[in-house]
Amino acid sequence: MNRQDFRNRAESISTKKGYDKAFKKLDSFYEVRRINETQFFKMLEENTAGYKYELLQSLIDFIKTTVSPRVARGYFESLFMYFVLCDLPLDYGQKRIRLKMPRVSQRRFEGLDKNKIESLMRLEESARHRSYYSLLYGGGLRETEGLRVTPSMFEFSNITRLKLPAEITKFNIERETMIAETPANRIKEFIEINDFRNDDLIFLDKWNDETDLIPFEKHFARLRTKAGLDTINRKKHQQNDITLHSFRSFFITTLTDHDLESFAHALTGHSKYMDTYYRKSIDKRIETFGTVAEFVNF
Question: Which residues of the chain have pLDDT under 50?
Fold first, then answer.
């Protein structure tokens, strides 16, 4: 298995991007130690178990000098999986016993709340991005799902229904979510002004799962900085705690705060909650969402 084969095992763009960042750290490790990947693999194959884990420990220590403990662990988990799939003599049980993973302490969580979203929306000059953000925070969509919606998927009303076909969802399970009146009107107006046809992508000319999210992420990063929402973690560990995905997290948290946790997870596509959701009638679903619509209606 080569690196590209390993990347192709992942379906989501974010996972592939994580793999790429992990491999970048691995390549830096090779450069510092003045070895290449073939030599590294040979060391893992030919040396004793103790030496194998000393070598892996040195990789962990190298990674954690430049990123947070949580990110270091994530990168190493991806790399270790890659090593195992390359048929190197490694064992998960030994990994847990022998390797010292960076400790996660003093966790600091940053996220979006209503005030922060409103400040972002006031600064956003593009109608396209305003309607896109409205879709993410108003309906709890993943970033890539939002980029693939078409006008035909919407049923506009005071509480708008959005039906997502299986081919655009992460786990290929069709689902329905709901959007409150104000964010839905923003999306509807954008569709009407641009005279989109039923099957047109609203935010893109065409979809390419490798590249099309990147411009939206970069644009949001500039907006986040402009709004003064860059976080301590970003400055210290090159992390962005507030991202496009934070809009989705806001949606889930808002509904959860009103004792609708399973309802929130069903609307956002977490499959283990969807059976309960779809056993209820559509009238009951709309009634339930109506009790919290005001909190995502801005």
Answer: none
